[in-house]
Design a protein that fits this description.
Blueprint: E1 3-7, H1 11-22, E2 26-30, H2 34-53, H3 59-68, E3 69-72, E4 83-86, H4 92-103, E5 111-114, H5 121-125, E6 134-139, E7 148-153, H6 159-170, E8 175-178, H7 187-190, H8 192-203, H9 209-218, H10 226-233, H11 235-248, H12 259-266, H13 294-317, H14 323-333, H15 340-347, H16 349-363, H17 372-379
Parallel strand pairs: 1-2, 1-4, 2-3, 4-5, 5-6, 7-8
Antiparallel strand pairs: 6-7
Helix pairs in contact: 8-13, 9-13, 10-11, 13-15, 13-16
The protein binds nicotinamide-adenine-dinucleotide (NAD).
Nicotinamide-adenine-dinucleotide is lined by residues 7-13, 30-33, 36, 87-90, 94, 98, 115-117, 139-141.
């Protein structure tokens, strides 16, 4: 595949365009908003300059990249594309309109893909004349830095198209995982308890933000604690993802959003980008100190990790992805220190099950039900 089209020059589109062009592709970036198009182009060229300064690329590389990039507002420029990746706003009707207008422009063997995070591949493909050549290719933010790409065939995708895309994206130096077209795919589904259970522990008054963050970084080796990470992602975005996964799972209590995060979002306490979130990022404000009680920290970590592992088991149990791919996804999509299923093996499945059973018994809530696959594996040794 030599010619790649990217639709949308926002955060994700421009990142995907960078990845493609740095892997030797000719890239056409189509954007409706000319101002955004020019800004994103300038931003990308600045990134190239920074990479040059760091000696990661050469002057010749930059000149090749610039020659191989076309920024346009005209969909007709996609006529030679072998692959088109759409990364526009998360609206089903707008995505439908875009795919309908490009389907007649592109070549018959051009593969069409969406970078959607929360819409189903099936629903986007519904308006296509040729849904067999359409699938999900889900990059993570920032696309040039995050190694993971989830490849998501829809119910109508030709298996040859899926294979072709897996190999193509592998050749872009990315790790790919194959995922069933289910809400949140792997990462945005399995990672939910990292935020949700942390918020629940806070709401119950067991510990404050700093202590929960400390427990997860200190005992778990996570790069950031849940509240630091939510502030980093933005409480608006993180809350919206949780809400959409909750709705998509027919209100399964495992994914229930939190009032605490909702109130932060409503109040404009979005995190780093607004200067305040769970923490205050104003100049001169000291970060709150955690309560470094070892027993408390260990209990918090065990509880959140058990919930994460339960979710990873559920993804395997429901054939969302293979065991290997679930672990790869969490290591490379959200930089977890270990894959959750390998982590479960390491600490012992029985211990994970006991933690979940205790929570389930104490709270009597469906949210804590241990996954049947985990139970079967423990009971069958
Ligand atoms: N931001 C993330 O962390 C992230 C991660 C993975 C996937 N995604 C998904 O990627 C997609 C894009 O997200 P984003 O964060 O880059 O959004 P964004 O708002 O930064 O960019 C979207 C861009 O699409 C443009 N656009 C809108 N309609 C268009 C059209 N008809 N034709 C061409 N361009 C159009 C907008 O002008 C905007 O520049 C969404 O589907 C989102 O769910 C986002």
């Amino acid at each position: 595949m030599n010619n790649v089209g990217v639709i949308g020059a926002g955060t994700m589109g421009i990142g995907i365009a960078q990845v493609a062009v740095q892997n030797g592709k000719k890239v056409v970036v189509v954007e409706v908003n000319e101002e955004v198009l020019n800004k994103s182009k300038a931003g990308l060229f600045k990134t190239f300059d920074k990479l040059l300064e760091k000696q990661k690329i050469t002057i010749e590389d930059i000149s090749n990249y610039k020659n191989n990039l076309l920024f346009t507002t005209d969909y007709n420029e996609l006529k030679d594309a072998d692959l088109v990746i759409e990364a526009i706003i998360e609206s089903l009707s707008v995505k439908h309109a875009v795919f309908q207008s490009i389907e007649s422009v592109v070549r018959p063997n051009c593969i069409l893909a969406s970078n959607t995070s929360s819409l189903s591949i099936a629903s986007i493909s519904a308006v296509l004349l040729r849904p067999d050549r359409f699938l999900g290719i889900h990059f993570f933010n920032p696309a040039p830095l995050m190694a993971l790409v989830e490849v998501i065939p829809g119910v109508q995708t030709d298996i040859k198209v899926t294979e072709l895309i897996k190999n193509e994206i592998l050749s872009w130096n990315k790790k790919t995982v194959l995922v069933k077209d289910t809400p949140g795919f792997i990462v945005n589904r399995v990672a939910r308890p990292f935020y949700g259970e942390a918020l629940r522990i806070y709401e119950e008054g067991i510990a404050d933000f700093a202590t929960i963050d400390w427990a997860m970084t200190h005992f778990g080796g996570f790069r950031m604690g849940p509240f630091t990470l939510m502030d980093y992602i933005g409480n608006d975005i993180n809350y919206t993802v949780t809400e959409s996964v909750f709705e998509a799972f027919y209100y399964d209590p495992r994914f229930k959003p939190s009032f605490t995060q909702k109130r932060h979002k409503e109040a404009g306490l979005l995190g780093r980008k607004s200067g305040k979130g769970f923490y205050d990022y104003s100049e001169g404000v000291d970060a709150p100190l955690p309560n470094k009680d070892e027993a408390l920290g260990q209990a918090i970590f065990n509880r959140i990790l058990a919930m994460l592992i339960n979710e990873a088991f559920d993804a395997q149990f429901m054939s969302v992805a293979s065991r290997e791919d679930i672990d790869i996804a969490m290591k490379f999509g959200v930089n977890y220190p270990k894959g959750l299923l390998e982590w479960a093996d390491e600490i012992g499945l029985e211990q994970v099950l006991v933690t979940l059973q205790n929570l389930f018994e104490e709270y009597g809530e469906d949210r804590y039900r241990p996954n049947p696959l985990l139970k079967r594996m423990v009971y069958s040794n």
